[in-house]
Amino acid sequence: MDTIAKHLVQALCSLTKVEKVEVVNLVLKDVEFREVLSELPIKKLIGSENNQEIRNILTTDNDSVSIGTGKKARGKKLRKSYISELQQKGILIEPFNNVWAETSTGLWVAIPTATMEGRPGRWFLGLSEDKVREKIGKGGVVIILLCQTASGLRLDFVLPPEIVEEIVGKLSKSKGELKFNVWQVGNHYTLVIPENNNIDVSDFKGNISILPSGT
């Protein structure tokens, strides 16, 4: 094992800075590696104060610490992949703008994403309230809450137009956004709505049959 580790370190050290960043990002997806990393004293991990290259690698966007642009990029990638899979299954849907897509029947589909859990079994997603209300009046809206677990498993909760219209006035709101808080308890998933109006969305998981297809 020592010989393998030695050769692995030598190979990593020979990489360019950009390649090292890519490797670190990939390795940080492993839960056990992140746990080990969190136990290391920071001074031991980054070495001397002048070792700026290592600092840059550790602070570069990754699945455990990223915010802002990196988080949006992962969400965009997840959404793009999901829409592509829908199309491969014969669903007539095309990306429109940011989180939105449109079906062949004029039905609007919003696909907010949560690519990392702040706490196990919980996902937090947001959508512009104005955009949702606007598009409800332009053919109806389906909202697909696209959630990814720490292990990489993707969950899609497909809320049909009648459910969207029912909850849009009840959801929590902040800075013009509707807030979606999804909880997992065992094999059940709940959309948290204030004043004890929670909805069990388990049956909506993977329910793409409400979307128009070409068959």
Number of domains: 2
**CATH-defined fold name of the largest domain:** Trna Endonuclease, Chain: A, domain 1
Structural class: alpha+beta
pLDDT < 50 stretches: 31-68
Q: N-to-C SSE series? A: HHHHHHEEEEEHEEHEEEE
What is the alpha-carbon Rg in Å?
A: 21 Å
Morphology: globular
Strand content of the residues, in percent?
25-35%
Give the beta-strand count.
11
CATH structural architecture of the largest domain: 3-Layer(aba) Sandwich
Describe the structure.
This protein has 215 residues and is an alpha+beta fold. The chain has helices spanning 2-13, 17-27, 31-39, 42-46, 52-59, 69-88, 129-136, 161-167, and strands at residues 93-97, 100-103, 108-110, 113-114, 122-128, 141-148, 154-159, 172-174, 177-185, 188-192, 199-200. Strands 1, 2, 3, 4, 6 and 7 form a six-stranded mixed sheet that branches. Strands 5, 8, 9, 10 and 11 form a five-stranded antiparallel sheet that branches. The protein is globular and about 60 Å long. The relative contact order is 0.11. The model is unreliable at 31-68 (pLDDT under 50).
